[in-house]
């Protein structure tokens, strides 16, 4: 499915536009924004995901299909382009940047046993690259999807950014491919590493935008989403609540947990770190019990209840959790009322908020600073009652950015490359807030006792 669109207004004060490309598992999205972050045109295409590998030619064909209609809509010149893609996905390319095999998604488990010998998680691209070594091809280079697309657009060959490189065996603290080399990957197969926002070439003429359009190194989609949220200063936190719950922060020191559930990307500007973690708890539990078309009515019922409900659920759609609890068989627990009772639905909303608070407290215990309002993104922000519950349980103001797609994060990187400024500085100019949710003091006080009972029930580490 292809979707095209444009905004009704263009910020005339912006001298040029920036294009961000987001290559996801199930589709491609393009956005063109002006220097204030206002989107002036978008284009997207989706495709079914039937396997754990994909043909890079499909990505390029989709980009070509969306590119011409998008640039026809643009009300001004494009200054730069950048791209983002999924973390942990890799593909082999030749010396000219052309694919020589399929791309292996982060969900592919080839090489997981090989990787385990070196302590490499199965979801890391390095595990699949070790498997590729056994297939007999040595004349190749490890490449990430965003690198491939930018190279196809005209960027030089043989580079990657430090966020994509992390799960391919790069140590951003040391600035070396330490883990990849220790696992036996030949140095000749490993690209040079640059910071996101680094200019890596110019757009080729055949893409129809003339000369001088800069191509700028991108990052993983997770980091791009954080850039788009504006959470790039020490103490800022972005909470993404969709099917799962993702925590992203900013710290001066690298933060990690012994089990790997918490790890840190190097900040796009260097010096700082972006600690993060992910919980399996989230909106998926709502889909398990209720069709989406009922959610608006259920939210209304939950709004009408006296809250707190008193429930202390740790709601998981399926067994298995990594953070803030840990255990492959950990199944959590549901509200102890019938599913048709409005207190069950409201108890699920509260349970996710309790897990969210527990996650923040665990990250703070590891040394991650949390200061001021929390930036909230994801599908969970569409529920007003859930936002109020979360604000009360967390005891903090929630701020909702106007748009948080990874494609916007890529566009911000493009702008940083052209302006010659840090990514945080570019984001400060281009990220817009939609609204704020203040915690209700009385409700926050009422939730304290319930949260203490939640901790007594679920606060253990295992």
Automatic annotation (TrEMBL):
Residue ranges occupied by any Carbohydrate kinase FGGY C-terminal domain in the UniProt entry: 240-416
Keywords from the UniProt entry: Kinase, Transferase
Annotated GO CC locations: cytoplasm
Record's keyword annotation contains Transferase: yes
Keyword Kinase: yes
Matching InterPro entries: ATPase_NBD, Carb_kinase_FGGY, FGGY_C, FGGY_Carb_Kinase
GO MF entry, a single one: D-ribulokinase activity
GO biological process: pentose metabolic process
Gene3D superfamilies attached to this UniProt entry: 3.30.420.40
PANTHER family: SUGAR KINASE, XYLULOSE KINASE
Family according to the record: Belongs to the FGGY kinase family.
Name by which UniProt lists this protein: Gll0781 protein
Organism the protein comes from: Gloeobacter violaceus (strain ATCC 29082 / PCC 7421)
């Amino acid at each position: 499915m292809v979707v095209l669109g444009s905004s009704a207004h263009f910020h005339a004060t912006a001298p040029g536009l920036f294009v961000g490309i987001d290559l996801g598992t199930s589709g491609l999205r393009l956005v063109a924004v002006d220097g204030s972050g206002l989107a002036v045109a978008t284009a997207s295409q989706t495709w079914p995901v039937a396997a754990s590998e994909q043909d890079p030619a499909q990505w390029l064909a989709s980009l070509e299909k969306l590119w011409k209609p998008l640039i026809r809509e643009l009300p001004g010149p494009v200054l730069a382009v950048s791209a983002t893609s999924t973390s942990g996905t890799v593909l082999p390319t030749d010396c000219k940047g052309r694919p020589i095999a399929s791309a292996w998604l982060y969900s592919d488990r080839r090489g997981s046993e090989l990787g385990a010998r070196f302590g490499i998680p199965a979801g890391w691209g390095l595990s699949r690259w070790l498997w590729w070594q056994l297939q007999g091809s040595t004349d190749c280079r490890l490449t990430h999807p965003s690198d491939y697309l930018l190279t196809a657009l005209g960027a030089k060959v043989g580079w990657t950014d430090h966020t994509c490189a992390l799960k391919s065996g790069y140590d951003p603290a040391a600035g070396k491919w330490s883990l990849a080399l220790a696992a036996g990957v030949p140095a000749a197969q490993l690209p040079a590493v640059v910071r996101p926002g680094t200019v890596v070439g110019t757009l080729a003429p055949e893409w129809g935008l003339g000369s001088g359009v800069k191509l700028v190194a991108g990052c993983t989609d997770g980091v791009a989403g954080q850039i788009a949220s504006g959470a790039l200063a020490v103490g800022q936190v972005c909470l993404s609540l969709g099917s799962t719950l993702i925590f992203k922060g900013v710290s001066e020191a690298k933060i990690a947990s012994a089990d790997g559930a918490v790890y840190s990307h190097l900040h796009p500007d260097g010096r700082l770190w972006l600690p993060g973690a992910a919980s399996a708890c989230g909106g998926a539990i709502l889909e398990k019990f209720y069709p989406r078309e009922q959610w608006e009515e259920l939210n209304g019922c939950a709004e009408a209840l006296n809250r707190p409900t008193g429930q202390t659920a740790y709601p998981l759609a399926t067994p298995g959790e990594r953070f803030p609890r840990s255990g492959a068989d950990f199944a959590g627990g549901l509200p102890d009322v019938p599913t048709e009772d409005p207190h069950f639905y409201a108890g699920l909303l509260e349970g996710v908020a309790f897990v969210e608070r527990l996650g923040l407290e665990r990250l703070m215990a590891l040394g991650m600073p949390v200061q001021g309002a929390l930036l909230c993104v994801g599908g969970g922000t569409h529920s007003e009652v859930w936002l109020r519950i979360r604000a009360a349980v967390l005891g903090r103001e929630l701020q909702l950015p106007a748009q948080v797609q990874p494609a916007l994060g890529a566009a911000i990187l493009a702008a940083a490359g052209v302006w010659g400024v840090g990514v945080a500085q570019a984001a400060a100019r281009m990220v817009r807030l939609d609204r704020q949710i203040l915690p209700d003091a009385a409700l926050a006080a009422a939730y304290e006792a319930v949260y203490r009972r939640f901790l007594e029930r679920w606060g253990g580490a295992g």
